[in-house]
Amino acid sequence: MQLLTQELSFPDPHTADAHGLLAIGGDLSVERLLLAYNNGIFPWYDDNDPICWWSPDPRMVFDLRKDQPMKVSKSLRQSGRNRNYRITMNQSFIRVMTCCMNVSRNGDLGTWINDDLIAAYTQLHELGHAASVEVWLDKELVGGLYGVDLKEQGVFCGESMFAKATDASKLALWHLVKTLKQKDYQLIDAQLYNDHLHSLGAVTMDREVFLSFL
User: Fold this and answer.
1) What is the pLDDT of residue 108?
2) Which of 22, 86, 201, 207 has the fewest CB atoms nearer than 10 Å to its CB?
3) Which keywords has UniProt assigned to this entry (predicted)?
4) Are residues 114 and 186 in the same domain?
5) Apex 115 CA angle, 133 and 200, nearest 5
């Protein structure tokens, strides 16, 4: 594991440890974040820790080259038709990140997202390198997701999503999948394996293969 300095560089992702931890330190500048994502690296850390940079193997992805990269259940389709949700993109980026930070997950309040990360990714968004999907019920933001958009590579790096109403985050993801497929994107990077993402159709991919898309 490497301790980063002010120099704008990262070690080879293949040198990450068995858990995917590659380096610690550095900063959250736009330049460093873009360098990280373009090399298959992302930050993930707790408030009391230094910035930790990860490149796990295998990687969790939604493969947009497939005809059906996401498993869409009958109930999810019904939610899309019957619950009067309205879906937008890039209309409320900061609010989506803030909701992702504050939403209760498994009985715990909050996530690894903090104010520094919100400020950093907002800069990325303002420069066109990060995007959000919002799900509205009337005028209330009830779900959404955000991530880093690597347009030239056709890869969207999903960061976090939230839901305050039935199926709201799944509908945000479904909207993103459909939108990116229309633009001939190749992958949505979901980073680390979890059962929920797997149930929605995400698959594991060897890091070497994932890096080839970048």
Assistant:
1) 45
2) 86
3) Acyltransferase, Cytoplasm, Transferase
4) yes
5) 35
Cβ atoms 64, 187 nearer than 8 A = yes
Beta-carbon count within 10 A of 134 CB: 24
Q: What is the pTM of this model?
A: 0.95
For residue 92, the enclosing domain spans: 60-212
The packing angle between helices 93-102 and 115-126, to 10°, is: 160
3-state secondary structure 16-35: CCCCCEEEEECCCCHHHHHH
**Same structural domain, 45 and 87:** no
User: Does residue 39 contact residue 153 with C-beta atoms inside 8 Å?
Assistant: no
Note whether 8 and 105 are same-domain residues: no
Looking up tokens 């009391």 gives: 48
Residue with tokens 């990714």: 121
Q: Which 8-state DSSP code applies to residue 40?
A: T
In angstroms, rounded to a whole number, what is the distance separating the alpha carbons of residues 63 and 114?
29
43 shares its domain with 68: no
User: Per the structure, how many domains does the chain have?
Assistant: 2
pLDDT digits (tens, 9 = 90+) for 138-191: 999 999 999 999 999 999 999 999 999 999 999 999 999 999 999 999 999 999
**b or e along 169-197 (b: 16 or more beta carbons within 10 Å of the residue's beta carbon)?**
bbbbbbbbbeebbeeebbbbbbbeeeeeb
Specify the pLDDT at position 111: 63
For residues 192 and 185, give the distance between their C-alpha atoms in angstroms, rounded to a whole number.
Answer: 20
Do residues 192 and 89 both lie within one domain?
A: yes
